[in-house]
Amino acid sequence: MSASAEDFLRRYHDRNPDANSTLGLSGQVVGDGRKSYDVLADRVAGARRVLDLGCGDGVLLEILAGRGAEVLAGIDLSSGELDAARRRPALAGADLRQGRAQELPFEDGSFDAVVSHMALMLMADVPVIAAEAARVLAPGGTFAVAVGAGPADAAEVFLSLARPMFDAVPKERQLPKAGDPRTRRRDGLDELLAPAGFEPVSWDTLVLDLGGPAEEVWHRCCETYYPVSTLDDAQLAELRVAFEASTRELLTEDGRLPSGAKMSLAVTRLRS
Q1: CA–CA distances in Å: residue 235 to residues 113, 155, 163, 217
Q2: Which of 94, 190, 226, 249 is disulfide-compatible with 72, CB 3.0–4.6 A?
Q3: Which Gene Ontology biological process is one annotated for this entry (predicted)?
């Protein structure tokens, strides 16, 4: 992630400290019923000391605290997110730092697990992050991440309509590129993590059900994609008209609009 991309994300989440957690808690895993945070937490069950990279407002750490983790730490670019995390009673004793995953302010071997929920995919210099995660993990420790794997149903329609608009935004208003696309592929993540001493990842792709009334799905789609913030009122109005027309046939008899997001879960261990 370039410095300008980090600056954008920091400012965005200072203004919207619960944006990611609100979205993450809105949907359930299809055929499962759990929230995505719970699924990721299950991957590090039993870990006593856990670090969250891009911890946001602390939802995942709070879940881990409720499952018995005793030493909790998190790092995030946004002071607004961290302030929200500190207001959670379960995180009163957590070590929450503002900073970058590429420069972790923690001692070697401090954690049994390092986790990241929908954040690693926005970060650059992932080999550096992998090396830092390996440094702060105890031998045999777990690295578990959730990354986006694309939209589904109405959300896929939304993105197909919005992409040409994002591309047409004047360059001075376009968002800086963020993330390394290799983090969204199993082979790509292995390529990034292996040099730091991690085993090949296990890989599962899930679908989150984010459907609901059409109005609710529209707003959820707008909140999902950062480049929506670059569109002006006229473009948003045009996008909404096109979205409503293109998704009308997807509406169920009870007025529900199917929508979703795919998420991949990758889990690996540090070689002892």
Answers
A1: 44, 18, 12, 18
A2: 94
A3: methylation
Is 108 exposed, middle or buried (CB count within 10 Å of its CB: 0-12, 13-18, 19+)? exposed
Helix (H, G, I), strand (E, B) or coil at 53: strand
Residue with structure tokens 């957590």?
94
Integer-rounded Cα Rg, in Å, for the chain is 19
The band of 23, judged by pLDDT with boundaries at 50, 70 and 90, is confident
Show the tokens assigned to 157.
């329609």
Res. 197 pLDDT band, cuts 50 70 90: very high
More confident residue, 212 or 19: 212
Q: How far apart are the first and last CA of the chain?
A: 30
Nearest to 75 by CA among 133, 18, 23, 24: 133
Give the Cβ contact number of residue 63 at 10 Å. Answer: 17
The token pair at 21 is 């957690």
Residue partners of 125: CB distance under 8 A and separation at least 6: 1, 102
- The full set of domains in the chain, from first to last, is 3-151+177-211+262-269 (3.40.50.150)
Mean pLDDT to the nearest integer, 113-135: 97
Report how far residue 137's alpha carbon sits from residue 269's, in angstroms, rounded to the nearest whole number. 9
**Element holding 266 (H helix, E strand):** strand 259-269
The 10 Å CB-count burial string (b at 16+, else e) for 169-207 is: eeeeeebeebbbeebbbbeebbebbbebbbeebeeeebb
| Element spanning 207, H or E | strand 202-209
* Encoded tokens for 18: 């619960």
Torsion over CA: 92, 93, 94, 95 (sign): positive
